[in-house]
Design brief:
This protein is mainly α and 445 residues long. It has 16 helices and 2 strands. The protein has one domain.
């Protein structure tokens, strides 16, 4: 089978641009399916359907309809499939289909796969895809087995198993969609939920490249610098968020203060410390958080997870490189250093480009939303950053937005998911300089 039609060679589009168009096409198909009468128990508008579809394909989790009660089993299945496609990656899924059908995977298809997985080389791509698929299937199957220990006794085999499947897919893909209006608050102190669900979205948020690296070496020293930075950065952010969240919310009667024991408070602190970096689930009322905790969550949502993962945000490694660049500047070092390796000036430029684009998207989105919605500024900022980081946590402002506000959030969610693909393409593409200008100095700071 000739799959050249699946590439942009004949229409002159770069691979990441065409990938973005494919994501948009799939979002449109998902909206059409959700608009069908058999997909919902209530009458939903095209805007509701489009918002839900984009939120699912971008693995965000922001909702304007109640997934559990407003959508039928068919509608929930559509959302789950969109989450799986969005988290796994269109090209990875296409590779799975072609391999299953015994069809050859040509060079052009591998170029798209390279862009979708954020790799710099075409070599060993198929090995990476196999690892990705094995990890996804294994993790989601284990997630179903563990979550069903809670859902099946409470809801019965049919409903309980479906809830386990849906929440396992949503968790591993860092989507944050839940079948209950209060997310997972009903199981706020359940050890099984507090261990299995975070394990799924933490593993999914590490990045497929890191998981592949770990599967090949299984020891610390041979791991790549990227893997080491991701593992250390993830552990550090989890520990920091856990301690700070517990300290800020311990006596808040709207969150941890309402719990009966210190053990329950620690369970909720752990869950909420791990979820803001793109998972989107919650086991306490996000609307009742102190403003200081809201700012903590905004910073974590902006950082996000790992490159080539199911998570969003500017990515953990970007944040670490920013810290390394700052440290190197104050130590007057020409290069950044970490784990016996060095990073050049180009990496710092890439970080600045990513931060600039992220800041412009968030500020532009906030500007448009505040034009038509004069609400709580901090809440609107929370929703906007949640959309950009494809997190899905909400303080209740999403459902109050008008058409312009919802279209803005839809755009931000889409940019938060497919934007890094496009931006990464330009960052990885170098153009030789034909003209050189004399250097000069400007005053900074």
């Amino acid at each position: 089978m000739n799959i050249s039609y699946f590439t942009g060679r004949n229409i002159g589009l770069p691979p990441p641009i065409l990938l973005a168009l494919l994501y948009a096409l799939l979002a449109g198909v998902g909206a059409a399916l959700l608009k069908l009468p058999l997909a919902a128990t209530i009458e939903i508008t095209w805007m509701d359907a489009l918002f839900t579809s984009v939120s699912a394909i971008t693995v965000t989790g922001l909702v304007v309809v109640d997934t559990g009660s407003d959508l039928t089993f068919f509608g929930q299945a559509v959302v789950a499939m969109l989450i799986q496609l969005g988290g796994l990656g269109l090209m990875t899924f296409a590779t799975l289909v072609l391999s299953t059908l015994g069809l050859p995977i040509g060079f052009e298809h591998r170029v798209f796969l390279k862009e979708d997985l954020g790799q710099t080389s075409l070599s060993e791509l198929l090995s990476l895809v196999k690892i990705v698929l094995r990890v996804v299937l294994l993790c989601e199957a284990l997630g179903v087995a563990l979550i069903s220990l809670v859902t099946v006794p409470e809801f019965g085999w049919t409903t309980g198993l479906w809830q386990a499947v849906f929440h396992s897919i949503s968790a591993f893909n860092n989507a944050g969609f839940a079948l209950f209006p209060d997310s997972l608050t009903r199981w706020a102190t359940n050890p099984v939920i507090n261990l299995s669900v975070p394990a799924l979205y933490i593993i999914g948020g590490l990045g497929f490249g890191v998981l592949w690296d770990i599967s090949r070496h299984r020891r610390w020293n041979p791991l790549t610098l990227h893997s080491k930075l991701m593992l250390v950065g993830t552990a550090g952010l989890l520990a920091w968020a856990f301690v700070v969240f517990a300290a800020l919310e311990w006596n808040n009667p709207g969150t941890l203060g309402a719990l009966n024991s210190n053990g329950d408070k620690l369970w909720v602190s752990w869950f909420q410390a791990s979820t803001p970096r793109t998972a989107g689930f919650n086991t306490t009322d996000i609307a009742q958080l102190h403003d200081s905790t809201v700012l903590l969550f905004i910073s974590l949502m902006l950082i996000g997870g790992g490159s080539t993962s199911t998570a969003g945000g500017i990515k953990v490694t970007t944040f670490i490189v920013l810290l390394l660049a700052t440290y190197a500047f104050f130590r007057r070092r020409p290069r950044m250093r970490a784990f016996g390796r060095s990073l050049g000036f180009d990496e710092a430029l890439k970080v600045m480009a990513l931060l600039t684009v992220a800041g412009m998207v968030i500020l532009s989105g906030m500007f448009v939303i505040t034009i038509s919605h004069d609400g709580n500024f901090l809440n609107l900022l929370f929703e906007t950053v949640s959309a950009f980081g494809t997190v899905g946590l909400s303080r209740g402002s999403t459902g109050e937005l008008d058409t312009l506000g919802r279209l803005t959030i839809i755009t931000i969610m889409f940019l938060g998911r497919v934007g890094p693909l496009t931006l990464g393409f330009f960052l990885a593409t170098t153009t030789p300089t034909k003209i050189k200008y004399p250097e000069s100095k400007i005053y900074l700071g």
